[in-house]
Write a structure and sequence with these properties.
There is one protein chain. The protein has helices at 2-23, 41-97, 100-111, 117-130, 134-144, 151-164, 168-181, 186-198, 202-214, 222-240, 244-257, 262-274, 278-291, 295-305, 310-320, 328-340, 344-355, 361-375, 378-390, 432-443; strands spanning 27-32, 35-40, 396-399, 405-406, 422-425. The protein is mainly alpha-helical and 454 residues long. The chain has a domain at 2-74. A hairpin with a 2-residue loop joins β1 and β2 (35-40). The protein starts with a helix and ends in an 11-residue tail after the last helix.
Length: 454
């Protein structure tokens, strides 16, 4: 509707001007170059309009002719850019499909076409990784650092490569630089925490952990576990420097956050006994037992009591398990103590409470000892030992990520390098093909920048 009104308005104005010009009377005389030019006002106006229109047409024609090469260049560039982005798309699809030769072919094609430099370098890096050319991938990621728009992505790619190569110190430097460039990226903080822990930089790890907690990047259940881990290792560090009281404060802070953390319980008991505070050490071990019913916790409790006889040892353990005396772990350790104290009836009673359930190897071995010591029944003992070979294995330290079994707790899994992943638990047999398959998927370039960095 508005356009129609504008059209009629312009038409009316043009008609009005034309009528006005036509109604003008008089003549115009002009002497130019010795010639006398004489015309009416109407003719002069129309002549002036014709000259203006002609001048405009000539100007536009000249502009079109002069600008033709530039327009041709732009059109050619646009076509090249379109071909380039199509090649980029095909290259990324080839990378996702794991087709190394197609990805390399499209990467070379993209290099010759008009595609943004960061995207060219990204495809080149991913195709190099897919082909197993780590040096080429590193070169591409390194080239990204010179462009502010791609520097962060380049750092991430270099960090992935450094992690794969086990270069901990370089990984820490790259993660710190990535955090400096973009402190809002969640993955940077998450990985910086893990790397600072892996590098044993406990003070820096604690600072980064608190930053992640304030920004709610790390969940509320994971934060106390990580902080307790850091505090425990800070305690061991200051203890090596000779500051026993400070180490004690740190380890007790760690145990308030994570009561069942066995390495911290061990260190805490040691420090409390050194400062002649056995009562507090007992309370600490009892709290730990409520959370983590590990045989070493029971041994620490016995160590505090320093029993003189096997019967005293049994009484100390019964004090420890008093809150839940019929828990399978409580029954096993007290039955073992009863056997050592030659209390056959007590041992048989305790073992009888768990023999109905699925017995593990510890129970079968204890029953074999009981039959041998109480009745001297070698046949019955052999039967129990035979059952032990087929029974469920006892709890062990195993990685919650890769399920690899370890002889003791360590801060880092020796197999997959996961931090604080070892758990005291029954080991579930895992199909080797499923674990290896997941590893192979993560090795593909699609996972290069996402999988290796959590």
């Amino acid at each position: 509707m508005l356009r129609i009104l504008i059209f009629f308005g312009v038409t009316f104005a043009a008609a009005f001007v034309a009528v006005w010009i036509a109604e003008q009377s008089g003549h115009i005389r002009m002497i130019w170059g010795g010639y006398l030019v004489e015309a009416s006002v109407t003719v002069f106006f129309w002549l002036a309009i014709a000259v203006v229109v002609f001048s405009i047409l000539v100007f536009e024609l000249v502009r079109i002719i002069v600008g033709a090469p530039k327009r041709l260049f732009k059109a050619r560039k646009a076509r090249a850019q379109t071909r380039g982005y199509r090649a980029l798309m095909r290259g990324m699809v080839a990378v996702a499909a794991g087709d190394a030769s197609a990805a390399e072919k499209e990467a070379k094609r993209v290099e010759a076409l008009d595609v943004a430099r960061p995207l060219r370098l990204l495809l080149s890096a991913q195709s190099s990784l897919l082909a197993g050319d780590n040096a080429g991938a590193n070169e591409s990621f390194q080239s990204m650092l010179s462009d502010p728009e791609s520097a962060f992505l380049g750092l991430r790619g270099l960090l992935v490569q450094a992690l794969r190569n086990g270069e901990v110190e370089r990984s820490i430097d790259l993660a710190r630089e990535a955090y400096r460039l973009n402190s809002d990226a969640d993955w940077v903080l998450r990985n910086l925490i893990e790397l600072e822990i892996r590098g044993r930089n406990w003070s820096e790890a604690e600072k980064v952990l608190h930053t992640a907690q304030r920004r709610k990047i790390i969940n509320s259940s994971e934060f106390p576990k990580r902080l307790a881990l850091i505090l425990f290792h800070r305690a061991t560090t200051v203890l090596e420097e000779g500051f026993q009281r400070r180490a004690e404060r740190l380890v007790l802070r760690a145990l308030r956050l994570r009561p069942g953390f066995l390495p911290a319980v061990r260190l805490g008991v040691r420090l409390l006994l050194c400062s002649d505070r056995p009562r507090k050490a007992k309370l600490l071990v009892r709290d730990a037992w409520e959370v983590e019913k590990h045989p070493e916790v029971a041994e620490l409790y016995v160590k505090i009591f320093e029993p003189e006889t096997s019967l005293d040892r049994l009484r100390a353990l019964e004090t420890l398990v008093a809150s839940n005396p019929y828990h399978p772990e409580a029954l096993l350790i007290t039955a073992d103590a009863a056997l050592n104290a030659s209390l056959w009836g007590t041992a048989r009673e305790k073992l009888g409470r768990i023999v109905e359930a699925q017995p593990d190897r510890r129970l079968c071995r204890l029953m074999a000892r009981l039959e041998q010591l109480e009745h001297g029944d070698e046949d019955a003992a052999r039967q129990w030992l035979l059952k032990a070979t087929k029974a469920q294995d006892q709890p062990q330290w195993s990685c919650g990520v890769c399920s690899v079994v370890s002889s003791g707790w360590t801060v880092e899994c020796r197999s997959c390098k996961a931090i604080d992943s070892l758990q005291w638990t029954l080991v579930q047999k895992q199909s080797p093909s499923s674990w290896q398959g997941s590893q192979l998927l993560e090795e593909g370039p699609i996972g290069n920048i996402g999988m290796a960095i959590k």
